[in-house]
Design goal:
Layout: E1 3-6, E2 19-28, E3 31-38, E4 44-48, H1 49-55, E5 56-59
Amino acid sequence: MKRYTLIKNYRGIHKKGTMFFLIAESEFIGVKEFVLQTVKLDGKIILTEKELKDYFRQLY
Protein backbone atom coordinates (compact mmCIF):
# COMPACT_ATOMS: atom_id res chain seq x y z
CA MET A 1 0.00 0.00 0.00
CA LYS A 2 1.39 3.41 -0.93
CA ARG A 3 1.96 5.94 1.83
CA TYR A 4 2.08 9.71 1.38
CA THR A 5 2.84 12.66 3.62
CA LEU A 6 1.75 16.27 3.29
CA ILE A 7 4.53 18.68 2.35
CA LYS A 8 2.40 21.78 3.07
CA ASN A 9 -0.97 22.44 4.73
CA TYR A 10 -3.94 21.27 2.66
CA ARG A 11 -7.02 23.55 2.62
CA GLY A 12 -6.68 24.31 6.32
CA ILE A 13 -8.04 20.85 7.15
CA HIS A 14 -4.88 18.76 7.35
CA LYS A 15 -1.51 19.95 8.67
CA LYS A 16 1.93 19.52 7.13
CA GLY A 17 3.42 16.12 8.01
CA THR A 18 0.09 14.25 8.22
CA MET A 19 0.46 10.72 6.85
CA PHE A 20 -1.99 9.11 4.41
CA PHE A 21 -2.60 5.78 2.69
CA LEU A 22 -3.65 5.67 -0.97
CA ILE A 23 -6.82 3.59 -0.90
CA ALA A 24 -8.20 4.15 -4.42
CA GLU A 25 -7.03 5.42 -7.78
CA SER A 26 -9.29 5.93 -10.80
CA GLU A 27 -9.15 7.41 -14.26
CA PHE A 28 -12.11 8.57 -16.32
CA ILE A 29 -11.54 10.09 -19.77
CA GLY A 30 -7.99 11.15 -18.93
CA VAL A 31 -8.79 12.65 -15.51
CA LYS A 32 -7.12 10.82 -12.62
CA GLU A 33 -8.53 10.95 -9.11
CA PHE A 34 -7.01 9.60 -5.92
CA VAL A 35 -8.63 8.81 -2.57
CA LEU A 36 -6.37 9.09 0.46
CA GLN A 37 -7.18 8.02 4.02
CA THR A 38 -5.30 9.33 7.05
CA VAL A 39 -3.26 6.79 8.99
CA LYS A 40 -5.32 7.59 12.10
CA LEU A 41 -8.53 6.89 10.07
CA ASP A 42 -10.01 10.29 10.94
CA GLY A 43 -10.52 11.64 7.43
CA LYS A 44 -10.62 10.90 3.72
CA ILE A 45 -9.85 13.24 0.84
CA ILE A 46 -10.35 13.00 -2.92
CA LEU A 47 -7.65 14.64 -5.03
CA THR A 48 -6.74 15.27 -8.63
CA GLU A 49 -3.35 14.27 -9.98
CA LYS A 50 -2.13 17.89 -9.85
CA GLU A 51 -3.11 18.29 -6.18
CA LEU A 52 -1.37 15.03 -5.32
CA LYS A 53 1.86 16.25 -6.93
CA ASP A 54 1.63 19.74 -5.37
CA TYR A 55 0.77 18.78 -1.78
CA PHE A 56 2.05 15.23 -1.20
CA ARG A 57 5.26 13.26 -1.25
CA GLN A 58 5.34 9.47 -1.48
CA LEU A 59 7.11 7.63 1.34
CA TYR A 60 9.08 4.46 0.76
